[in-house]
Recover the amino acids of this structure.
């Protein structure tokens, strides 16, 4: 009887000592164009984050895809699909306590090389990590490892495109959707971390289902040892898949954008890790109203 009691106490103590972390993932965040105008009208650079900031800020780690580079000079509103965010708009990311952003997406070069470098420097200045691009090509894959409660989380990011119809060649400082390279980078990160999370900017815009490229890349990441793949770019929510012990969010849709009323819905993924194990996952739908998302 005494042995059983001792065993129960030991098991209880072990459970108490196992760290628990809550990770929150968001989709596309675009801080230019009408989002910028809405912030200006309210004299509040953090306007778009106000209703959902607590969801991210209360997490142990918070991630989004930064769809608009910051630019030192205007214009901050263009009718074409070029996104250049005013530097003041970083206040929203700070309000929400965003720890990591992906800068690997098709809009990464919208402010040119100066904007790409300025964005990395501005994020660094405000304590926000960037993954998926780097100031120098040799610094890629540009992954980052952050420790929370004794658990090391590694982030990597990749994009299917970086030209956005404006460039003829690729910049080697932005990580492309190369499955073979990604496998090597996940395998290299594994010994340094407890959990690897891969960001995937890919898919057909406005399609409800993932395409073959998304599926192959995401599953390859899990097979290589990633625990989670977080997708964005289609601007609408796509399915969640449990695969080989990992979780794939093919697209979380828009988090902050001005594509209303068509693409005004998205989702936030909330994950719980007990030690290095993913023990729960929840998808919380959001709706964008007046350039500001709110939980549905």
């Amino acid at each position: 009887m005494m042995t059983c009691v001792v065993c129960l106490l030991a098991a209880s103590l072990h459970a108490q000592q196992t760290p628990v972390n809550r990770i929150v993932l968001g989709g596309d965040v675009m801080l230019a164009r009408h989002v910028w105008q809405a912030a200006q009208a309210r004299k509040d650079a953090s306007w778009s984050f106000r209703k959902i900031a607590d969801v991210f800020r209360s997490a142990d780690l918070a991630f989004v895809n930064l769809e608009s580079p910051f630019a030192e000079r205007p214009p901050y509103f263009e009718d074409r699909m070029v996104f250049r965010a005013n530097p003041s708009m970083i206040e929203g990311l700070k309000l929400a306590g965003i720890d990591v952003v992906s800068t690997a997406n098709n809009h990464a070069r919208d402010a040119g090389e100066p904007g790409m470098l300025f964005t990395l420097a501005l994020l660094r200045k405000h304590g926000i990590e960037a993954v998926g691009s780097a100031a120098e090509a040799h610094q890629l894959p540009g992954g980052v490892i952050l420790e929370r409660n004794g658990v090391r989380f590694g982030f990597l990011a990749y994009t299917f495109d970086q030209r956005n119809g404006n460039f003829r060649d690729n910049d080697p400082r932005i990580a492309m959707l190369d499955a073979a390279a990604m496998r090597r980078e996940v395998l290299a990160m594994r010994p340094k971390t407890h959990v690897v999370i891969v960001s995937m900017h890919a898919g057909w815009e406005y399609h409800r289902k993932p395409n073959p490229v998304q599926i192959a890349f995401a599953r390859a990441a899990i097979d290589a040892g990633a625990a989670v793949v977080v997708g964005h770019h289609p601007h609408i929510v796509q399915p969640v898949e449990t695969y080989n012990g990992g979780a794939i969010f093919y697209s979380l849709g828009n988090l902050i954008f001005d594509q209303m009323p068509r693409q005004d819905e998205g989702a936030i993924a909330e994950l719980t890790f007990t030690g290095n194990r993913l023990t729960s996952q929840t998808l919380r739908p959001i709706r964008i109203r007046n350039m500001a998302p709110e939980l549905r």
Remarks:
- The first helix runs from residue 2 to 17.
